[in-house]
What we know:
The chain is α+β, with helices and mostly antiparallel strands. 35% of the residues lie in helices and 21% in strands. It contains 2 helices and 2 strands. A two-stranded antiparallel ribbon has the order 1-2. The chain is flat. The model has no long low-confidence stretch (mean pLDDT 79).
Amino acid sequence: QACHQIGGAFVNNYPCTNLTAQINCDAFHARLYSKKCGFSIVADGCGWGNLARQAAQRAVAAAADYIHSRL
């Protein structure tokens, strides 16, 4: 059985402070259907904190559901 994998990582460009670990509110989703078919989505959290993070996560989830339902 073939194993198809996809991965990703975020890079912070903010100055190093004691808050750096909490700054990144971006979200991403990737789905691989086969070796030649897949998609990825990235949403910018546009700010700091839980509300920005939740907005990015919801945007990514909605876009992924929409694309998945059309493939």
